[in-house]
Design goal:
single chain, mainly beta
Length: 179
């Protein structure tokens, strides 16, 4: 089978470029160490901001504030604050940052029945796990799951109270700027 001249030239140039590319030294991807990160986190029911301070190579302190949007009544709202001591599991691949965290969780629930309203607050323990993916020198995104000893609210004596404890699981996507 005889190749037309343009196809033969394209084949020869592709083969020669591929051979030249194999001779080039591998370009090393290096990412700077960071001390502080600022970012956002969210899922379909909540949105928040977060900050992290790395005080050792594999340890950091993470703070997040979250607003929840999953309420039945018009004037009800809730949110929370999360503070975690985070350990990043070291890997050879610096583009992937798996981590585990444990810390405190503050919850606020503002309830409103139209004729009565109030705030219900709680402070408890929580933890999390996730993995961050660095896709440039200054940015990363992550998939994280927070588990907290949450509460279920109910009416007791015409006011809202925490009536029982329940495990709260909150998956979230995160996006951080690395400083």
């Amino acid at each position: 089978m005889k190749l037309p001249l343009p196809a033969a030239l394209a084949l020869v140039s592709t083969i020669s470029l591929g051979a030249q590319a194999q001779d080039l030294p591998a370009r090393e991807t290096t990412y700077k160490e960071y001390t502080v990160s600022l970012g956002i986190l969210g899922n379909p029911k909540a949105l928040g901001v977060q900050a992290e301070f790395r005080f050792l190579q594999h340890f950091g302190a993470r703070l997040a504030g979250v607003q929840s949007f999953d309420y039945q009544r018009q004037n009800e709202f809730g949110g929370g604050g999360i503070g975690l001591l985070t350990y990043y599991i070291p890997l050879k691949n610096k583009l992937i940052e798996p981590g585990l965290g444990i810390g405190g969780v503050y919850s606020l629930y503002h309830w409103d029945t139209g004729y009565n309203s109030g705030n219900l607050t709680d402070f408890n323990i929580g933890g999390g796990a996730g993995v961050n993916f660095r896709f440039s020198r200054d940015f990363r995104f992550g998939i994280n799951v927070l588990a907290a000893n949450g509460f279920e609210a109910g009416y007791v004596d015409d006011t809202m109270r925490a009536v029982r404890r329940k495990l709260l699981i909150m998956p979230a996507l995160t996006f951080d700027i690395l400083l």
